[in-house]
Design goal:
This is chitinase. The chain is built from ten helices and 27 strands. It is an alpha/beta fold. Strand 21, helix 5 and strand 22 form a beta-alpha-beta unit. It starts with a helix and ends with a helix.
Length: 519
């Protein structure tokens, strides 16, 4: 019996020794794509603690260029370029030994191919120990440019560093031993995104992204920094005005609105009879004369298509052709200098891009194209408005997103929901566009002109000036500071000239002088 007991003890010990590695299999993280609906996707990461002790986890991974993750749940998320970091939410403690947890996120666009470079607490997400000696991620990067070159600089990476490699996409552009590099041979007004990685004999660090646009962008027929205002071709509680009453502070006047007909894509316009009565008589001929008078004062006038009740639909090749033909005819008839896309009830990026390129071929290089998306439309590059802006970037004048009537929204740091009506909100949301493909000269801030003009997001004009300074110079910021300065930020838009009149012209008289004083 003693012998048998000894044998049993030895067998038990052997089984225990074999089982130990399974109990201490390590910390792992597994990604699954929970859903994909064409314009976006839902991801899930499951973390399993196969160690013998509780652990606080840190998951990091990259997503391909062109994809972004605007929101996550059951984790705290931060972002640097295409690199994302997730840590436990504030209410969660360490993950117990043998336990599992998960977090989820939404991203865009759809057809997501998956994540890359996944690590958990520095080790591979599949388990194992961290590679000893791999350098840390380079510090925050910045860029300056000329018409043919972009100069980059970044903070020193931790650990043993042999040098730094600068990539554009998957292409290695240069290798340096210091913390700066210059990429030459570029064209004027080109936007490039580079990734800087530290390396040594063991491997490469996580990347640090930086984007910049070469100098030489033409600002077209508008000032370097300009003010846009919408003029009402209808009656509402705001002051009714003839176009001739628009003050000198406005550089670009958007006529609200061109209307749809029963023919898909067709746009029509005429002076609203109710407005004509309210201002003591106003004919189409008088309106055209006022457009010509604004031109004599150096101003530009465009036709805005859409609005809250707008039903203009461009969802086919035939509709795109009809849109281009009808808008061009209105430009010739009334003297409009371009078109503003303000469709709040559906937009097809493919066919609207076709329509605008056709209009450009008819109107020539002086055509002004602006867009007025809602904040939700510019949260992700997979959204139709954002897709449209990027697809016509070569002919687009400016996007003046409506930073109002939206509630709290995520900014480009993807780390917090910022409240509308604040400097943080305006800067953090403009930063999404600036860091995802649009040039600074194509981005402007759209705000209400004062009480009555919007249901939410009304700000003092002085805060608009602060937001412009924060974007242009990284001064006068709130708690959110953008990753770099954008001195070419284009300006501001307000809804509307009529509401500005109702509020003693406070918006235009405050913001326009500030724009004139910007470098």
């Amino acid at each position: 019996m003693r012998l048998r007991a000894s044998v049993v003890a030895l067998i038990t010990l052997a089984l225990t020794l074999v089982a130990l590695p399974a109990q201490a299999a390590g910390l792992t993280a597994t990604f699954t794509k929970a859903a994909d609906w064409g314009s976006g996707f839902e991801g899930k990461v499951t973390i399993t603690n196969g160690t013998a002790a509780p652990v606080a986890w840190n998951v990091q991974f990259d997503v391909p260029a062109g994809y972004s993750i605007p929101s996550a749940w059951d984790a705290t998320m931060s972002r640097s370029g295409q690199h994302y970091t997730f840590t436990p939410p504030s209410w969660a403690g360490p993950l117990a030994a043998g336990a599992s947890t998960s977090f989820g996120f939404n991203g865009g666009p759809g057809n997501f191919p998956g994540i890359t470079g996944c690590t958990i607490n520095g080790a591979s997400c599949g388990g194992g120990e961290p590679q000893p000696g791999v350098p840390g991620q380079p510090g925050v990067a910045s860029a300056t440019s000329t018409t043919s070159a972009i100069s980059l600089s970044w903070g020193t990476a931790s650990g043993t560093v042999t040098g730094y490699r600068v990539y554009e996409g998957s292409t290695l552009k240069t290798t340096v031993t210091g913390t700066s590099a210059t990429i030459t041979g570029l064209g004027a007004c080109e936007t490039h995104t580079y990734t800087v990685k530290a390396y040594n004999s063991v491997g490469e660090s996580a990347g640090r992204d930086v984007s910049a646009t070469t100098a030489g962008c033409t600002t077209g027929p508008l000032p370097r920094h300009f003010l846009t205002g919408y003029w009402h071709n209808f009656v509402n509680p705001a002051v009714e005005l003839k176009l001739s009453a628009v003050p000198a502070e406005y550089d670009l006047v958007a006529i609200a609105f061109g209307e749809a007909t029963s023919t898909a894509g067709e746009v029509v316009f005429s002076v609203d009879p109710g407005l004509a009565t309210a201002v003591g008589g106003y004919t189409d001929a008088q309106f055209k004369a006022d457009v010509a008078a604004l031109h004599q004062r150096g101003k530009k006038v465009i036709l805005s298509v859409g609005g809250e009740a707008g039903r203009v639909q461009v969802a086919s090749a035939a509709a795109a052709t009809k849109f281009a033909d009808s808008v061009h005819a209105l430009m010739q008839n009334y003297g409009f200098d371009g078109v503003d896309i303000d469709l709040e009830n559906g937009l097809n990026a493919t066919y609207m891009a076709q329509a605008l390129r056709s209009l450009r071929s008819k109107a020539g290089s002086g055509l002004i194209i602006t867009m007025a998306p809602q904040t939700i439309d510019m949260q992700s590059t997979g959204a139709e408005y954002f897709k449209l802006a990027l697809s016509i970037k070569d002919i687009l004048t400016v996007v003046h997103t409506q930073f109002y009537n939206s509630g709290s929204m995520l900014g480009c740091d993807q780390n917090a929901a910022y409240s509308q009506g604040t400097v943080n909100f305006m800067v953090a949301l403009a930063c999404i566009q600036l860091e995802n493909g649009l040039r600074p000269d194509q981005v402007a801030l759209g705000l209400p002109a004062g009480p009555g003009a919007a249901g939410g997001g009304i700000v003092a004009p002085s805060l608009v000036n602060q937001a412009l300074d924060c974007l242009a110079k990284r001064t006068s910021c709130g708690s959110f500071v953008p990753p770099r300065a954008y001195p070419d930020i284009r300006g501001a838009m307000t809804w509307s000239i009529n509401w500005d009149a109702s509020n003693n012209w406070n918006f235009s008289k405050t913001v326009k002088p500030h724009l004139q004083g910007m470098p």
